[in-house]
Design a protein that fits this description.
The chain has 279 residues and is α/β, with parallel strands linked by helices. The chain has eight helices and 15 strands. It has a single domain, classed as Ribonuclease Z/Hydroxyacylglutathione hydrolase-like (Metallo-beta-lactamase, Chain A). Helix content is 22%, strand content 32%. The strands form three sheets. It has a seven-stranded mixed beta sheet, with helices on one face. Strands 1-2-3-4-7-8 form a six-stranded mixed beta sheet.
């Protein structure tokens, strides 16, 4: 098995959104922001290659947005999903499985593109089976007033009509060495993959732990629909990650790719950060 970080660009998030009720005087010591209180976020996907199987975890935002939307969300960067895949030596048609942690725009948008006519949406990974939690699929089609802007009908309709969607109902294994569990605090049915790699377990933290500064159980993003649930899920997650010495792989941390934990006075704390290739 081989793992490849795949970079799909960057966005900007308000510090208050990224850290919720945690005061800036605290979080600013651990994660930088600009003069407008905006924090740089990565869209870092992960390609898992195991024999003929090539599983891509999340797809970034893609480029289907108008200039106003790009400006409001600070979408920038020269790296693209397909470009990063090709730089790693892979073509989109080789991807066998597209695994969505959830269907928010910055996690699934890159899996749908406009065709040659510039207006007809189509799958980027035409040969891939696309996986998502059934509860997240249902949520995406029935958002509430708070999370409606996180989902795009173009993405959902294209995925629905593709015939390539498969739904996950509970914790399990996609294949040997690729386990996933379900968390519901950020959004119902977020899948968190845990991959066996070089004798370690590498966990793709998605929006359960967006950046290293979110490691403390109470340091939640304001995006979470059910913050108390997220705290309970994080507390359980951090205990297991600490006990089993998991490697955390961050999707949104623009400055740190991976991290290890150690025990602190109030639970798990950051031990060190490093690149995945250092394992």
């Amino acid at each position: 098995m081989k793992l490849y970080p795949i970079h799909a660009g960057y966005f900007m998030a308000d510090g208050g959104a990224l850290f919720g009720v945690v005061p800036k005087v605290l979080w600013s010591k651990h994660y930088p922001s600009d003069e407008n209180n905006l924090c740089k976020g990565a869209m870092r996907c992960l390609l898992v290659v195991d024999g003929d199987r090539k599983i891509l975890i999340d797809a970034g935002a893609g480029d289907k947005y108008n200039e106003k939307y790009k400006k409001n969300n600070g979408l920038h960067g020269d790296e693209t999903l397909v470009g990063s895949l090709k730089a790693a030596g892979f073509h989109p048609d080789e991807i066998t499985d597209m695994f969505f942690t959830h269907l928010h725009w910055d996690h699934c948008g890159g899996a749908v593109q406009f065709g040659e006519d510039g207006k007809t949406p189509e799958l980027v990974f035409k040969n891939a089976t696309h996986w998502v939690a059934e509860s997240q699929w249902e949520k995406a089609w029935n958002p509430n007033i708070r999370d409606g802007n996180a989902y795009f009908s173009t993405d959902l309709e294209t995925l629905r009509d593709s015939g390539k969607m498969r739904f996950i109902k509970e914790e399990g294994d996609l294949f040997p060495g690729f386990h996933y569990f379900v968390v519901d605090g950020h959004t119902p049915g977020q899948l968190i993959p845990v991959v066996d790699y070089k004798g370690r377990k590498v966990v793709f933290t998605a929006d359960l732990v967006p950046v290293t500064a979110n490691i403390p159980v109470g340091w939640l993003a304001g995006y979470d629909l059910f913050p108390v649930t997220t705290m309970e899920e994080k507390e359980k997650f951090m205990k297991i990650a600490l006990d089993e010495d998991w490697v955390l792989f961050f999707e949104h941390d623009a400055y740190n790719e991976c991290a290890e934990l150690e025990a602190g006075k109030k639970g798990a704390v950051l031990k060190r950060t490093f690149q995945l290739e250092e394992l």
